[in-house]
Write a structure and sequence with these properties.
Elements lengths: L4 H29 L4 H9 L19 H11 L3 H20 L2 H12 L5 E4 L15 E5 L2 E12 L6 E7 L9 E7 L5 E3 L13 E12 L3 E2 L5 H37 L1 E2 L2 E2 L4 H30 L3 H29 L1 H4 L5 H11 L6 H15 L9
Parallel strand pairs: 1-4
Antiparallel strand pairs: 2-3, 3-7, 4-5, 5-8, 6-7, 9-10
Helix pairs in contact: 1-3, 3-4, 3-6, 4-6, 6-7, 6-8, 6-10, 7-8, 8-10, 8-11
Length: 389
Amino acid sequence: MAFDAATRARVLATVDRLIAERIAPRARAVDADDVFPRDLWQAMSEAGLFGLGIAEEYGGLGRDLLTPLLISERIARASGAVALTFNNSTDSVVPIAEAAQPALKARLLPRLAGGELIPCISISEPGGGSDVGAIRTTARRDGDVYRLDGRKMWCTNGNVGDVFTVFAKTDLEAGSRGLTAFVVEAGMAGFARGPAEPLIGLRGSPVAELTFENVAVPIGNRLGEEGEGFRIAMLTLNESRLHCAATALGVARAALDLAMSHARDRKQFGKPLFEHQGMMFHLADLATALAAARALWKTTARRLESENTRAVGTEAAMTKLHCANVAMRIVTEAVEVMGASGLTRALDAERLMRDAKAFQIYDGASLVQKSNIGRDLYRNGLPFDFLDP
């Protein structure tokens, strides 16, 4: 059940204090060090943030869609990497909270809610990212276990994670209908993680390769039934796209704030840069683009609260596509507004620019989103009738 306004306000007030006191002062160091910030993970845990999306009976705060999205946007204004650390944890818990067997929920969810375990979700492979039908990791039933063999790529927090929702084929000839989801736990024999990949942006939120060699996964760690993996992936896909959009919006907001501050302080030809009509019009255009993107994001989030249909999936794809593109535009133009100051690592604009590019790639690259949107438009037309009375 969604939080009421007062509960949401209390949670967000806690988050705002956490950002001001802990996250913002560490943002540059997290980027420079490019190491998973366990101190900030602990701080978010102590604030109870990992209980979002987990039922109270398992020690969580209950299920609410909008509050985690607002938290992602707020944290991203200080650090896109830390925002991704937060929202990847909430996204990764959804398949377990929704599809795990009761015994597995009872064993894992209280520890996930308390931040004791770091959850991950792993779909992408060397030959299959957004194309889940191309997944080649296999899961073969062997008595009371499944034997997993294969390789995964780009797993967020993969080198530090404890619990992994992994999608594998139990039927190689059935395409996406042959996909099944499993919970793989760190320490299982035959399961290995590679080192963090060095990336240009979102440094401090590591991604790593996972390998599976005859990993024995108990049948009790299967999520749902065989062949339900695609459905389970869809449980979190739309929400994760909105989290990506939220993080992009937060980074864009931070970049625009920097550009406007610079334009107020920097004088050119005897007056602040902001007072030149060309600059004023330029910043007004960027602010309008950000407002429009945020309105689309909130509208889609509100609809997803009540239904998770194919039409909402198309709107989530539109939202992720648009917000990621707007963020990239705003941070690029913010750097240009700031001139040489935008290029220096003494300020945050260049970090925001490096971070922003990732939003056009992860959770389905922009070209993939356009393909998904285009196919649905071809079949069903424009999906906006819900706005009518």
